Amino acid sequence: MRTQPTPPPPKSEDDPDVPIRPTPIPNQTVTSTVPGHRKKGTGVRAWLLLDSTGHTQMVEAGKHAIMRRTGLPARDLRILDPLLSYPSTILGRERAVVINLEHIKAIITAQEVFLLNSKDPSVTPFVNELQRRIFCHYQATKAQEGAIDDSSCIIRSSSQNLSARISQPRNQDEEGKAEEKQGLENPNGSKILPLEFVALEACLEAACSCLENEARTLEQEAYPALDKLTSKISTLNLERVRQIKSRLVAITGRVQKVRDELEHLLDDDEDMAEMYLTEKQLLENSSTSSMNERDDMDEILQPDMDDRTPAEISLATNFQGDNLFGAPNAIGRDSHGTRTSTTRSTISKRLDVEELEMLLEAYFVQIDGTLNKLSTLREYVDDTEDYINIMLDDKQNHLLQMGVMLTTATLVISAFIVVAGIFGMNIHIELFDESKAGMPEFLWTIGGGTTGTIFLYVIAIAWCKYKRLL
What we know:
The protein has helices spanning 63-70, 74-77, 124-150, 162-167, 169-183, 195-231, 235-267, 269-273, 277-306, 310-322, 326-334, 336-350, 354-423, 439-466, and strands spanning 21-22, 45-51, 56-61, 89-92, 97-101, 104-108, 112-115. By secondary structure, the chain is an alpha+beta fold. A hairpin with a 2-residue loop joins β5 and β6 (104-108). α6 (195-231) packs antiparallel against α7 (235-267), α7 (235-267) packs antiparallel against α13 (354-423) and α13 (354-423) packs antiparallel against α14.
């Protein structure tokens, strides 16, 4: 009985074997009759890919495809996740640089740049500027390659014999380094930054410019509002200042995080060396080629060693026993894989980070200036708050003084109220007898009570001022 083979399960978009595919044309619509059908797999996002020539292409890729193409771990890709909130970060890895600066989320390699949120309106100017810079870098590189092809500064003869290659390995290494160093320079002497530094500079400039523009806008709104609040304290002015202060705190935190990230990179040379992707790739290729050449020389010399006489073999054995470099070379041939694995760890120690340090310092100074402006504005807000509190305390003191004066007046008037209460009683006294007392006596009584009340009030106020209560 013949059984039908079971078809393999369909691969998801996150499968590592699924390649990055271009996004279909937006005008084409794909309809599906299956209810609940999902067009995209979990974790598949649209990336804008910029190659080394400045051409752009929209691609859809899952995180596993991006990890395989850039060599990044999954925890580094979480930094770019738009559903998660991560602060500004710049990470240098073996084959890529992860950028998360404000609205810019990108992965930079030695040959291409991946942008995550390229459809954001705030990112569109940055995409155009980055594309322009990459295209200018491509043109400068082509012009430099043409100048190097026409020049005859460095000539390597392909007909060198085996003895010259053995006796002068150090000179060849120095020539290779000189050639690589010249490759980074234009014919006029100016250096051409590698692609990763061109993209990194564009990201830093866009982020720093965005923060600086927000700080400038906040300054233009804050100073008039604070001055208006100083002249007139009202609920509307207080609400405006409260909103400005909330924005100030938020933007200060963002600027401070970018500044701390740049300061951390400037303080750690190893982190900066990790961002030299092009030079690391060149050094790794040169190390691999030199090890392959050494293995080829060993294979060439091996038949000659087999044809030697026993006397020559014994003499060569004694010479290798006395030579200090013989054992490491023999061990190196047996541990070819070990040297290859340790090459990457030693590459960063051989790189000069002065070029990247100067680039980062320029934007560190810019972001530090923005932070100083925000700090000055924060001090102005604090000074305004202190001034308003002083004004409110002064008004409160005036109200307390008025309360003391009114309370004292109420107290002394109470004495006159007692006199009026006595006259209001239904009793018979001589003052009320019309035959014995007249109107003048009544007026003198009222006038004397009023005068006494005023005299008591003046005495009470004078005593309060003497005790510094008023």
